[in-house]
Amino acid sequence: MAQPATWDHPEPLAVASAPVPEYGSGSLADLLPTLAAGMGVPGMAAAIPELTPADRNCVFLVDGLGWEQIKDHADEAPYLHALLGSSRGGTGRPLTAGYPATTATSLASVGTGLPPGAHGLPGYTVRNPDTGALMNQLRWQPWTSPKPWQPYPTVFQLAQDAGVHAAQVSSPTFQNTPLTKVALSGGTFLGRLTGEERMDLAAEQLAAGDRSLVYTYYAELDGAGHRYGVASDTWRGQLMYVDRLVQRLAEQLPPRSALYVTADHGMIDVPFDEEHRIDFDADWELRAGVALLGGEGRARHVYAVRGAENDVLTCWREVLGEQFWVASRDEAIAAGWFGPTIDQRVHDRLGDVIVAARDDVLVIASEREPKESAMVGNHGSMTPAEQLVPLLEVRS
Asked: Rounded to two decimals, what is the model's pTM?
């Protein structure tokens, strides 16, 4: 009698094989505490040992400026590319953004000096345990009281309390947003429309105190990547502009200053076909037992109908496990994806199943998320193109 054929199905990616961010020694959450410790702010620890203290510190965060993108675009960004060797205190190494590598999560990590499991913004959209509905943490919709959602003081607040001159120089549209309040408040917010104005004012604010902590931000590179992709002429044009902005600020640094150029995440382009864009809204297997789909295409929080958690985990592993790391909430927490510990208030914001892309693929939702599903450039997961961010340094 003939033996039945065996089912040759590749094993899903092991959760332990995901490259966990360097929380505690080399992540975005470690940057401001290290700088503040060097200025004598109480309670702050120098978590990134490679950095040398300075009296005046400026962090210029360029949204979407990944480490890999700088390496790959020397012609468009000659000034930034020449600074690669200065990254992370002259080691020539990048930082890790944290998981997920997305703007709301990363800005909260930068401003609070805490990993996502503590500050509580662990994704683009997550479930609010109090309402059971998805909450968009970038746009802060539906509106949620900011302080209970993120109760910790920012490093800017702690620095100001310690007598450090603290300031944020950004677009005026961000001044009163809830995300700014929970992630970047403290000191003086100064709104300026153009990049050149922000660079000039950031330099002035650095000089305004014997000890200064200044943050400035530029968003349009990220927008160009989402709309047109990092392979586009539009994105490359934005990168050229960013390169000039960084040089403009660096040439105006007052004495005893350190400028750090970093980012919230990198980005990859994902092809527009069914192989690379798996549509949750059109896939009955992935939808089965799912109450809410959170996160974003490369970093999903999947919330199961009560009692269906194990079935959803099994199904998503079978369908996606060769291209995505698929973990239960407990597995992701134990692996340290969101940091060494998880605050109790944050625990149920995480998906019952957490899905992080390894390959150049997305789980889109064409009906629920039409705008996000149409983006060319994407980010969120733990691959080098998304996770590694620069910490370029210029000193005066």
From this structure: 0.96
